[in-house]
């Protein structure tokens, strides 16, 4: 059950609020009166829902799944769709409450003539995923473009999700950011600034809410090997990187999950985990030592644990299933 989702990124649909109440039989009226009263909600939602108080439910451990770069049609339609079918099959067996997709949903970006077909296939394949599994999309460079524009962002938000948003699940805060904006804000500098203000505000308010864990999701990694590595096409530039790292440390963010590199990488920066997951479809690794697959994350009251699994070694059940 997703307690609530809120975001104010988009130029089209300023705020969205969704809930998936499949694993908790409460009425929408009670839902709005209870959990939706988060201090993280934007003014528009708070006003609309007329919620006055925030009630934190008791924590229970749970597991969820991270997918990176399904990038449908990369390395061909047959190859990539077969990988996605394989991933969906595992997800249907694991039955997590939600799936985070860390960007590059299809290979064609918004202005590619193939994008309509590729996104149609993407939605068709995901229609085979059990509807109990909520999908949370993150924008990649193959989605909104390496240098986003208002047009590319509007295109993405109409089809997939806000470019930044957050949601709460079992008293854990999940923050989603648009990392192309962190790298290349040139076409939309005001929007890039707005995202950073929102991020800071979200973290600031999270301290009052006393979440068990706060996790951040984006497409590009802050870094791949160490926090002081040189800027390149795979990471966030060092100035913005250290600005975000400082905020993560200040507000006790547990982990940053990302894709983009099509390889698995891991950095632990004084307790902050920066977790780069290999793609679910096509890897840039050539010797078979860094395979494609999915990352399973187990969430405890004060920490998280996670493992990336090759499809051939994928568990058949979660450590903490929500649906039994
Ligand atoms: Fe990618
Ligand atoms: Fe990418």
Plain-language structure description:
There is one protein chain. The protein is α/β, with parallel strands linked by helices and 324 residues long. The chain has two domains: 1-6 and 18-55, no CATH class; 59-313, 4-Layer Sandwich (Purple Acid Phosphatase, chain A, domain 2), CATH 3.60.21. It has helices at 28-33, 43-49, 77-94, 115-126, 150-159, 179-183, 189-209, 238-250; strands at residues 4-6, 62-67, 98-101, 134-137, 165-169, 172-176, 214-217, 255-258, 265-269, 272-276, 293-299, 304-310. α3 (77-94) packs parallel to α4. It is globular and about 45 Å long. The protein starts with a strand and ends in a 14-residue tail after the last strand. One fe (ii) ion binds at residues 104, 140-142, 219, 260. One fe (ii) ion (FE2) binds next to loops.
